[in-house]
Prior knowledge:
The protein has 15 helices and 13 strands. It has helices at residues 3-18, 25-37, 42-47, 53-60, 65-79, 87-101, 142-161, 169-178, 181-191, 197-209, 212-221, 269-283, 303-313, 352-366, 381-395; strands at residues 117-123, 132-136, 165-167, 235-245, 255-264, 321-327, 334-339, 345-350, 373-374, 408-410, 413-415, 423-428, 436-440. A hairpin with a 5-residue loop joins strand 7 (334-339) and strand 8 (345-350).
Amino acid sequence: MTKEQRTAMARIISDMIKADNIIEESEIKDMKELMSEYAITHQEMSDARKIRFTDAVNTLKELPIKERQAFFDHIYSIALSDNICVPREALLLIALQYCLIETDKKTDNGNPLQKPYLISCPTGEASFNDQYMVYLESTFDEERNAELMQHFRLLVTITRLCGFNFIYIPKMVEEFRGMNKQYVKDVISYMAPNLEESFIQQVYDRLCDLTTVDFFRNVLYERLQVKALHNTPPSLLINIGTSVVPYCSAGGSVQYYTEFLCIPISSSILTLVDDILGFYQSKVSIRQSITINDSKGQFKYFGFYKALFDFLVAPPPIAPDLIFLGQDMKTGRYQVAFKFDDSKEKKICLTPREYDAYFQVALRSYKGRTKGLPISCDKHIKPTIAHVKSKISDEIPDLTYSDQYKPEREGNVYVLRLDKSKVFVRVHTHHCGCEYEEIPIVKYDKK
């Protein structure tokens, strides 16, 4: 077992111990036993503070299934060490179950289905802190939306009985559209008194025109930097809690990351929700339900509604396009450019190996069958990618949503999570290099 895997285990152990806000003597005993069994050092326990729960789970995906199952059983024992499994502990168990234990599934024609995965975004301490499920899609799926409209009330009812709020963006938008327009605008003005009238109208329009795809692209993907796949199929997004990095401010400023479990819908949405709630109820000891006032015409300002409103009010910074320039004809250097709205470009120089690795990650993330660059393709790939990420951080420190521009390891491949519409390849159309065109990477075909 690697040092990275032991550190990941340490993070998950610590998260489970802290989940109920009470550190029991029995939990400390269990922790010491696990540290001994897995040879986890005190330094690795300290290093675990610097990573998120999401990072830890992704690292442990590389372990054999028997080892993952054994570790899951140990974590479940910690959750029950005080004879009570609280909702936050049950949510962590759901994440581990779907990401580490659940077996691979296939379609009727034998093709593999996309696996559940964890994602996170940097947020304030109190952001997205209620229990909810959100329907998510990156492109409109007519069949799934028809199914949701048909079963929406049932989904709301059964999820509330278990303490979850089911969110379907079109129904939320219906609420805003049904309210008195001036009342909603007055609420926006009250909550954001510094906004000009024209911008208040823009916020109102966004509230009333928001689609599920808009929510994915403009709120989750662009605004919150949620590392969802750019081609996310119809899925359920479940808030599983907040990771604090580091645990103690002595090591630096405390950062908060809201973490989500994203589960692609492979059968009916009712079946998936029933499976999730069944697992949740089988683990949690303290059952809770939520009561929400469904009075029409009232502006809700709590939980998911509050978080969504707060992010819509603040205009998002604009992320630049990523352009692969290739080799400069004059200097011989390999470059990539970050092109901003004002057409200004910031460039970084890479070695031929670094450029090729970065370009292959991007190309295979959007066009390749493997959905990323396999780690096995080059024994030097790990340090090469690390150098690329360091150069992006060092040379463009003010880059908006910088994590989306950096290759990220997901299982046995490296992927790029930047929206495909922002990635281009510059191709020169004249031998002197003075004329060129920028081709979207999804249309690029090297001849």
